[in-house]
């Protein structure tokens, strides 16, 4: 991106350049990138979903290829003497692969989750990869098969650990089924979710963004009023800055979408990268 008039704006061909930058990151530091790369992947995916949805399969194919090398290095299980950063990166990478729809990752994560359901002390689902497993479980949930959702809610209700509850809340709306996302959002309105934790459920899948926006506009229960009052009473300079930055980011994203839509050569570039 370049600075123009005090505002960051995307340049032509920026998307392929980001792909190349990510490739360099993987080659230079294949075991030390974690959440940073995962966040970039999520950002690009969401922008492309709006701008050029016909390219999404190529985008996913490209990113899966990048992440699999790192996933192989990390493995599913913790290693003796590894750093805290490596432990965190393992979870971020497998979470990203699950969101991208990588079947092998989703199946392995579901298998480990099922073992965890039978034995909460099993070593096969270390806390560092539980978020990845929970997200993977939600990838298989549909309006006609909610077994995974029900299992996650069972764990949520049985655990006394706040961190575990937050992991689950942050996974519920990652489901690609809109009706399930809507159900997950409605769970926020229940007495089971503390007001301060409601925000974690808003980590919505790309497919569920539209239903989430409608839900936010029309939800009018007492719970929503309570949530609004909870955060309204905590308005600080830092929160005002965050809101302003979010609005600026929305503007940047919209301009980026417009730029990508006008790029006639982008489709060919993305297909070449996906097939490398």
From TrEMBL:
Molecular-function GO terms, alphabetical: metalloaminopeptidase activity; peptide binding; zinc ion binding
Q: Which UniProt keywords apply?
A: Aminopeptidase, Hydrolase, Protease
Q: State any GO BP term from the record.
A: proteolysis
GO CC annotation: cytoplasm; extracellular space; membrane
Q: Where is the ERAP1-like C-terminal domain?
A: 19-217
Indicate the family of this protein. Belongs to the peptidase M1 family.
Q: What is this protein called?
A: Aminopeptidase M1-like
Q: Which organism is it from?
A: Gossypium australe
